[in-house]
Structure to design on (236 residues):
């Protein structure tokens, strides 16, 4: 395991791009740890080593993923986001207990949160719909990234029109949250639900527009026609 970690980290270091290093930080408000490797290159490295890793037992694969998260490098977190969706046939609802610990312990920016949750947890929810109850419970956490995770884990299912009622339940719990990362997370979820359920999302926004933070509201109505946007933005 340590040999694989060392090889991957050597490749990441060898592919450092000075331009990426200079521009990477501007996408984040707080300090982030990164090598400065293009996302496309990180994906190729992840794919290359996944061929070796996918034959390992589940416990070892999870240990590798946790080591990547533990390092705090954003690119190493991206590798986890590539590997685990390709391991979906082996994932189970009980794995959400582990994933919750990872989010609480290691996730510290929106890129790590969204990269991990969109497909790994989103795909798991689609495969095991009963697991949505665990993800919904995250919205009650005090941890900002776990609250955002509750919303963004439904992004991919929402694009397909799934879990609309559960999405509204999560948004209800997050509705008054003052954290902009949480607001953007559930606003994004509403936006994606509006692709298939525009009327329902519009009605939800109008019903809650007097208490919904402006940031979340703007995200939620982004895909709607101008006339609906104007109505939604009118808080009178």
């Amino acid at each position: 395991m340590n040999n694989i970690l060392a090889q991957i980290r050597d490749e990441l270091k060898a592919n450092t791009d000075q331009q990426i290093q200079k521009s990477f930080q501007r996408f984040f408000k707080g300090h982030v740890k990164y090598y400065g490797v293009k996302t496309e290159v990180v994906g190729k490295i992840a794919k290359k080593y996944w061929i070796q890793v996918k034959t390992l037992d589940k416990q070892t694969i999870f240990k590798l993923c946790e080591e990547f998260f533990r390092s705090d490098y954003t690119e190493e977190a991206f590798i986890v986001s590539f590997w685990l969706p390709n391991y979906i046939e082996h994932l189970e609802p009980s794995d959400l207990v582990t994933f919750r610990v990872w989010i609480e312990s290691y996730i510290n920016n929106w890129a790590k949160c969204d990269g991990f949750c969109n497909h790994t947890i989103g795909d798991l929810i689609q495969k095991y719909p009963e697991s949505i109850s665990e993800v919904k419970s995250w919205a009650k956490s005090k941890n900002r990234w776990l609250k955002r995770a509750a919303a963004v884990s439904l992004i991919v299912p929402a694009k397909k029109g799934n879990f609309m009622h559960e999405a509204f339940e999560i948004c209800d719990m997050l509705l008054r949250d003052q954290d902009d990362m949480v607001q953007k997370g559930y606003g994004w979820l509403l936006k994606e639900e509006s692709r298939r359920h525009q009327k329902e999302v519009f009605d939800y926004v109008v019903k809650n527009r007097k208490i919904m933070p402006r940031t979340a509201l703007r995200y939620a109505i982004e895909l709607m026609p101008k006339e609906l946007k104007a109505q939604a933005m009118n808080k009178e």
Notes: Residues 1-90 form one domain. The mean pLDDT is 95. The CA atoms of residues 70 and 105 lie 8 Å apart.
